[in-house]
Amino acid sequence: MDSGSKLEEYLLLAKGARGLALADLIQKVTAEPGIFTFGELLDVPSVKELENAEASKAHQLLQLFAYGTWSDYKGNASSLPALNDQQLLKLRQLTVVSIAENKKSIAYGELLQQLELGNIRELEDLLITDCFHSGIVKGKLDQRAQRLQIHESIARDVRPEQLQPILDAVATWMGTCNEMAEALEERMRWMVGATEAADNAKAAADARIEAAKTAAKSDPDPRGGSQEGMLLDEPVGPSMDHTMEEDRIGFGSGRPKRRR
To answer: What's the pLDDT band for 253 if we cut at 50, 70, 90?
Structure first.
């Protein structure tokens, strides 16, 4: 059974449980391997009733696993139920997730302090076996630099007082996206108009070229006459009459005639 199905089962049981039975259910769900979010359980009406009931410690325990870290537990251990080994392990896993939400590179020293582990071997076993293999954190260990490099991590539950800043950030982001979309649409409209104008200009230029070609075929002489007319109207050498006149006055022979 996957973690989603397990959580759904606990949600159904929580809706029908009350008092100490519900407190026992919370102990079980916080120790259940694979379940790392608890906000939906906190929204169940019967669970909300625990906040001011005799089993209020169970409600505080559920809030700790939903939002808290190892240091929160150590600071409030006296007001919380005793935790078993599985719950302690999960709280350390959730602490790593919380740190990874804000940092992409975490020094071993910080992790050792936040998790209260005795040595690097324990820390690396926790990170590899209980964080990487479970899929709650993806990254790699830089043993030379003694740092955990974070690639990605799961998201934890969000406290109610954190919702408004998140909603404001999302609204700002959406506003920026809308502005960019409007700017892109305006640019697209301009490009469409510019393309249409260019197409119209090209079509007009093509029409003028075709008209000029047609005119050139029908009237190749820029003075208005045809080539055939030019050949008939304009002589290309001496006229016949002029040649006959030359023969008459003696220019037609090889030498001039002597007068007696």
So the answer is: very low
